[in-house]
């Protein structure tokens, strides 16, 4: 299967995605926040927060999984993106680690479909073009290294048409 077949960009609300796993751009507490994190918690219901409390937080670039509760997705993979300008130049590596670690966890969960938001590009301030470039490059490298991956449906979910165009430009 080629990267072109696996990787798709779409515009919409990640909480509505009917996939095995959606990725949450969480914060280190994993106790909920604004943006996509708030939307995921409110769509999933209180069970999600309860499970998150048992996880003991999450480091930058790491990923932890929970159930999806009332979401159409069976699992939520929580990852913590870098806060732009706060990691002494390590931001690109941390952002790439978010994508790689989320994919690795999705494989452990036997997922064949996964949806990513544009991690760190909201409150965490990562410039959107740079973040999209890292996201696309990291996904491509991952599937080049794992050609037999079961992950056949990998969605990059943009929250606006303008954001979708930025990501699509990186996929060309
Ligand atoms: P971060 O703290 O990692 O920057 P944010 O949630 O503030 O996380 O923003 C990450 C990205 O998620 C932004 O591009 C924002 O527009 C987008 N976003 C916000 N809500 C949703 C949603 N319901 N579905 C998909 N993307 C969303």
Describe the structure.
The chain is of the alpha/beta class and 172 residues long. It is built from 6 helices and 6 strands, in the order αββααββαβαβα. The chain has helices at 3-6, 35-44, 46-53, 91-108, 128-145, 161-171, and strands spanning 7-11, 21-26, 63-67, 75-80, 113-116, 153-158. Helix 4 (91-108) crosses helix 5 (128-145) and helix 5 (128-145) crosses helix 6 (161-171). It is globular. The two termini are 17 Å apart. The relative contact order is 0.22. Bound molecules: adenosine-5'-diphosphate.
Mind telling me the CATH superfamily name? Leucine Aminopeptidase, subunit E, domain 1
Widest β-sheet, arrangement of strands: 1-6-5-2-4-3
Number of helices: 6
Q: How far is it from the N-terminal to the C-terminal residue, by CA?
A: 17 Å
Number of domains: 1
State the share of residues found in helices, binned by percent: 40-55%
What's the assembly state of these chains?
Answer: single chain
């Amino acid at each position: 299967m080629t990267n072109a077949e696996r990787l798709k960009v779409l515009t919409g609300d990640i909480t509505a995605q009917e996939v095995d796993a959606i990725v949450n751009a969480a914060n280190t507490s994993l106790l909920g926040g604004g943006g996509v994190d708030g939307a995921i918690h409110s769509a999933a219901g209180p069970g999600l927060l309860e499970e998150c409390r048992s996880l003991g937080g999450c480091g930058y670039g790491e990923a932890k999984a929970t159930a999806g509760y009332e979401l159409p997705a069976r699992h939520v993979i929580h990852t913590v993106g870098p806060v732009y300008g706060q990691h002494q130049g390590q931001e690109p590596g941390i952002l790439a680690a978010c994508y790689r670690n989320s994919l690795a966890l999705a494989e452990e969960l036997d997922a064949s479909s996964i949806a990513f938001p544009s991690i760190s590009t909201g409150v965490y301030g990562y410039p959107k073009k740079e973040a999209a470039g890292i996201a696309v490059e990291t996904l491509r490298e991952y599937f080049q290294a794992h050609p037999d991956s079961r992950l056949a449906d990998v969605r990059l979910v943009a929250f606006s048409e303008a954001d979708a165009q930025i990501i699509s430009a990186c996929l060309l």
